[in-house]
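note to self: dont lose this again. the chain is below, predicted strucutre after it. 97 aa total, dont forget to put it in the shared folder this time
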Amino acid sequence: MAALDASEIAPALGAEVVGIDLEGGLDDAGFEWLRELLYRRGVVCVRDQKLSRDGQIALARRFGELEVHPIANAMEGYPQMLRVSKPAGERAFFGTA
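---
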């Protein structure tokens, strides 16, 4: 894997990461670097990712056990994943079908 690099977004919060592939190119050392960066900066932006649903779940599991929301409707075939959207004029919260 190429050297990982992050730049500060704002003095107190956030970092932007470049040169990383979250779909499958993140070894254990790279993941620990990313996790530590997230804990230090609070928000991490990783642009231009093409994560599949399975890839999103695999990445999330590296951070800890996933939960299934007891009320909101999950995406079909992916009980741990909710679609977060709110079309213009919509009053309902996310996760409703």
